[in-house]
Design goal:
The structure is a homotetramer of 256-residue chains. With 256 residues, chain A is an alpha+beta fold. Chain A contains eight helices and six strands. Chain A is globular, with a radius of gyration of 22 Å.
């Protein structure tokens, strides 16, 4: 029962290393989350507990993979940005895609009880992942802008949709009323009919979550029992605009 | 904040559909499991609870992805076989690789307390995954034979190694004694020095785990309260030789 | 001016080796041949000189690349079949695609004066090439059947089209008359209106060209001046059905 | 004999579009040119007729493919640079690789009699091609610098080697004498032993050929018979340094 006669099958493995010198964006996306949300009675349009759990799982991923430069999340998706010069696993696509999906999902399950203590996990959450390469800083920023613009558009729609449904409309009626309408109409609808100022809603809902590594002070016990304040880099969650230049000027190290 | 000006970034996504007409093997592998095993004090050379947890996670994957024809697992790795004609997610590599890694890891974490009730999960288990295509039945069988031969070789070595270590040798001494020795020497060592007949060890350790879908009887309650026996296909774990023809003759449907 | 500081750019080269164990089909296709044919006043619907030149260029490719098992050509395209176990250039796609395109085009230009002695070559003929993998014999045969069925369909249409045009119709009228018609209609049209029995047309036009390596006798001069008959394998052009089993039974070595 | 039952084989064709936003470098390389040079008695170390033929073939390629921004050639190789935003054939790798190889080879054969009028073409010249992507301007420039530094190193070596061989040494002796020596040694050898000032050799040999599109005046006949001077862009061959910044400052449009 020697291995050697069968080892030729390794030749069928293909090299999937990604082009050097490009930003690697790894986007995770929940599979079948509409059903998953219903099963666990997530609040509509946004369940803050579920969003915080997503953020916490993403932070766990960033602690595991120190190469990740920043992350952006909304709803049931998260994008992780690896730098141009990243050599993790030789930039092999399957390695990165599977490990990040594995780490995110495991963290999601492990951290669930902290974030939804009263809701037992009743199904296996699944996330797919894909890797996309961006050769220029402009393309990377436009990718992130695309996701944040999407957050805004979806959230405005969903806020209107669920306001209408909670006010007694059917899903179909709500959908029909909103179809093809512009942002102004939706803002006005929320304000005049539901007394909601859209821009006063939490930034988390309107802008999604950005995770950066920032210096955080923490207290460390020294050998002789005294406590000492130290600093370390920790992945921190922000809810701010990443489309305009301001953010990138403030965090110039991200594209450096 | 329209999406449209940024949507061009979708053009950077590449098509990673895998060649039709080939068997797809998706192999998962634990990341850093040496450390993970030590952290949770897994028994050496084989922890039957941990192996059963691997099998249970693999069964969960097979329940989620009905396309999977069979699976083979050993130690901290598992291979899943998708049939030639499989069209799941258009055969997109990243989708399959990430979802199977996600499902396996989530199941591993969820099922942990059932299999290791007295050992709290103290770290995030991670599994990477890769997809390999095999154009012929012969190549697929040789792949599975390769993994099972590997199971045997590793297990014989580990059984000797840990017997020596438990008898008082250091890791280095045990390794040195075994280096370059043949199977006969190791079998004889186990028998003469430790009274162990290697072939009498559990097949799970020597042959790994095969998972097939088999007809299983189950009792179903009918509407009027009577119970009725029904059959359904369930992923069942076997520990048997898959290198010789016998297995493939008995389960001719696997390659059909 | 040392090379070493720039050599890192080699890391950007990607590995494009094709999956082992599959048939490799390399299909060449003339670029802009409608215009090229007009420029050189090729006869319509088939110019036997131009078709023979295609065949001769394909034979030159088969003499250069001994791995090629067989070839099939029609009109301005040619497909070359490399066997499953082929290791030429490590199965690197770009190498095979470019070299076959290069060899075919160079041969086409070099052999032109032999086949069209009265027509000076007035433009550069261009051929693109692509590689496609077929994991099973069935898929390979179906590929070749697809090309031969295409030959038949195009030739029947073109024969009708040019008969109508030569009889005085405009291109548009001819096209309109034929659009959506079945084979029976076209056969009847040729017979009743132009006295042409389609099945009596040269097989080269109706079935395309197959190139196989066959034993050919040739006379060799020995050292003492006598001539001696020897045999060698030469790429030979046939015009026969390759869709039905008969051809493959007669040439069982092709798929062996 | 319908096509439809066989058309499924098209599904085996894979999408090989190259990542947008990157420079595409297509490098052609002569196959077996050592033998090809001997067969045609090319002058050593450089045959100016053969180098001019390479340049002319590359110019023909640039006339055919207007997307090509610039080209660099030396010895039996040529690199063609397509811009980041190039959409030719949807950036499909096989299309570009095969068509450029086809066009270059055809042009080489067609233009041969003009450049080597007394030497009949006695074998089929073959060129392979590969595509490499460069995400940044820096990487593209470093690629071109790598090729030009290679030109210099090879030419200095070859100039010494053939001087030694022509002076009576065997190939092996010449090779042994040069092995591991630095540029200074080789310059000194040429000067002291052969009276050759390396830097006075033609720039074509020392720096290779760069092809750019430049405005060229040409005379056009107007409808009424008068001649009128016009300008058009023509691929022009230069022999100059492309490693230092000067060239790129002078031709800022190349990277714009």
């Amino acid at each position: 029962m020697a291995c050697s006669q069968f080892e030729y099958v390794k030749q069928y493995e293909t090299d999937d290393r990604m082009l050097p010198g490009c930003w690697i964006v790894l986007r995770l996306d929940g599979k079948g989350f509409t059903k998953f949300c219903e099963l666990h009675c997530f609040e509509k349009p946004n369940d803050v507990r579920a969003l915080c759990l997503m953020d916490a799982a993403a932070q766990a991923v960033m602690r595991e993979f120190q190469d990740i430069r920043l992350a952006f999340g909304e709803s049931d998706e998260y994008s992780f940005v690896f730098p141009r010069e990243c050599q993790l696993y030789g930039r092999r696509c399957s390695k990165l895609v599977s490990l990040v999906a594995s780490c995110f999902t495991a963290s999601y399950v492990r951290l669930w009880p902290q974030h939804l203590p009263d809701t037992p996990l009743a199904a296996t959450p699944l996330f797919d992942a894909r890797a996309v390469l961006y050769p220029s800083d402009r393309a990377l920023r436009d990718y992130l802008s695309w996701r944040q613009a999407d957050t805004h558009i979806n959230n405005l729609y969903n806020t209107c949709f669920w306001a209408l449904v909670k006010s007694g409309k059917t899903n179909t009626e709500a959908h029909t009323q909103l179809q093809g309408t512009l942002a102004d109409y939706k803002n006005e609808l929320l304000f005049s009919q539901f007394g909601l100022n859209y821009n006063a809603l939490p930034e988390r809902f309107r802008k999604g979550s950005v995770i950066l590594r920032q210096r955080v002070k923490h207290v460390k016990q020294t050998a002789d029992g005294r406590s000492k304040e130290k600093e370390r880099l920790e992945p921190c969650v922000l809810h701010c605009d990443i489309i305009r230049d301001h953010f990138w000027q403030q965090h110039a190290e991200l594209l450096a």
